[in-house]
Amino acid sequence: MLLYVTLGTNDLSRAIPFYDAALAPLGLKRQRTDEVEAGYGADDDVRCRVWVTKPFDQKPATRGNGSMVALEAVTRAAVDAFYAAALANGGTDDGPPGLRPFHAHFYAAYVRDPDGNKLSAVCERPE
Q1: Predicted model pTM
Q2: How many angstroms separate the most distant Cα atoms in the chain?
Q3: Over the chain, what is the mean pLDDT?
Q4: In terms of Cα–Cα distance, which of 81, 61, 63 is closest to 73?
Q5: Quick one: which of 101, 103, 89, 94 has its CA closest to 121?
Q6: Per-residue pLDDT of the chain (127 residues; tens, 9 = 90+)
Q7: What is the pLDDT of residue 122?
Q8: Whole-angstrom Cα distance, residue 91 to residue 57?
Q9: How far apart (Å, rounded) are the C-alpha atoms in residues 82 and 22?
Q10: Which residues contact 13 (CB under 8 A, 6 or more apart)?
């Protein structure tokens, strides 16, 4: 089990509206904010599970080629809402919502945040 995920940003003020909107359909909301980072978690969780932060080493944030964060969605509608919110708030399409060939109920959407980090929302339940 993952404890948390950290995603780098070069512009936190640009990243926050994207993540506020894109993570809300997945039940995650911003719980902490300061001048270098924003933390997102569920209301019933004691810790933030997704952090968006300026790099600790003060160097520019870069995205990893081949890396992606996949977040669980409870419903396919939540996947659709994640995708729409991401695109409406500065994200770019990297694969629209739909079934994928990984198994019969793997419904996912893929986006890039304003810094180029790849995110996915996935619902593995039947419709």
Answers
A1: 0.94
A2: 45
A3: 96
A4: 81
A5: 94
A6: 679 999 999 999 999 999 999 999 999 999 999 999 999 999 999 999 999 999 999 999 998 888 999 999 999 999 999 999 999 999 999 999 999 999 999 999 999 999 999 999 999 999 8
A7: 98
A8: 25
A9: 5
A10: none
Copy the structure tokens of residue 48. Answer: 């933030």
Amino acid found at 5? V
How far is it, in rounded angstroms, from Cα 17 to Cα 2? 25
Q: Which residues contact 18 (CB under 8 A, 6 or more apart)?
A: 86, 89, 90, 91, 113, 114
Task: Give ∠ CA 45-49-51 in degrees, rounded to 5.
Answer: 135
DSSP 3-65: --EEEE-S-HHHHHHHHHHHHGGGT-EEEEE-SSEEEEE-TT-SS-SEEEE--TTSSPP-PPT
Q: Return the bridge partners of 26, or none.
A: none
**Residue 76 DSSP label:** H
The strands making up 92-99's β-sheet, listed across from edge to edge, are 69-72, 118-123, 107-112, 92-99
Q: Are 19 and 37 in contact (CB under 8 A)?
A: no
